[in-house]
Amino acid sequence: MGLIDKAAKAAIKVIDQTSGHLFGAELVKAKLKSYKKPDLSGPLDEIDFFLNPNTITIEREAKLEGDASNQGQEEKKYTLTYPTCMKIGELWFDTYDTRESVRKKYIDKIEGLLEYVPTTHYLPVVTLVWGQFTQETEKSPEYAFYVTKVTVDYTMFLPDATPVRAKVSLGLEQATTKKQEDARKPKQSPDHAKLYTVKRGDTLQGIALREYEDPREWRRIAKTNNINDPLSLRPGTRLLVPPILK
Q1: Gyration radius from the chain CA atoms
Q2: b/e per residue, 190-202, with b = 16+ CB within 10 A?
Q3: What span, in angstroms and rounded, lies between the C-alpha atoms of 156 and 37?
Q4: How confident is the model at residue 13 (pLDDT cuts 50, 70, 90)?
Q5: Which CATH class for the 189-241 domain?
Q6: Going by fewer Cβ within 10 Å, which terminus of the chain is more open, N or C?
Q7: Confidence (pTM)
């Protein structure tokens, strides 16, 4: 290993060691736990991080709409709170010492979080487990997420092109149970129709299963949104999910 590689590897170790021992605390390793459903039932796997995250960004946003009914003066009124988004940056993975493929040992598992679970038609739901960061907040029970974006930079290779070092960043969107989503419904929606944002891996059958507990009701959603091809769903599309009147 050249002097540059030695220095780079030493720097990576110092980052993690410093984060754990700067204040005399014992180093706690971070990991992701994955589940089949948003209520965290059906455990699937655990992914241990090689080094702890360098940055974590939490984004929360509320929607306000104007109301001109008050003597012609427009007022902003609360409508709903969007799902929480989280970004995890600067995750380093390294297998230089063992000469293993960092892609095979670590990255394949992370990228697998973008593949839907056949039995639920949804992406795996993950929670971040990292010591006091995920324990000392009243919001922790709500912090279950879908991984919506994985960015990988491979930064070191063996002579045979085996990748042995990678930098990863993750984008996540809050996974909500039906009860949590009901609480977010627009306050002016007396018929309880709702808007649903399509996520990667979603199918109409899966959405119907979640909303109506019956995948056969997918045609109701398709008809309401003028969808002729049920396989043409694109992430980010907003669908109107109609109520089943009884």
Answers
A1: 22
A2: eeeebebebbbbb
A3: 36
A4: low
A5: alpha beta
A6: C
A7: 0.63
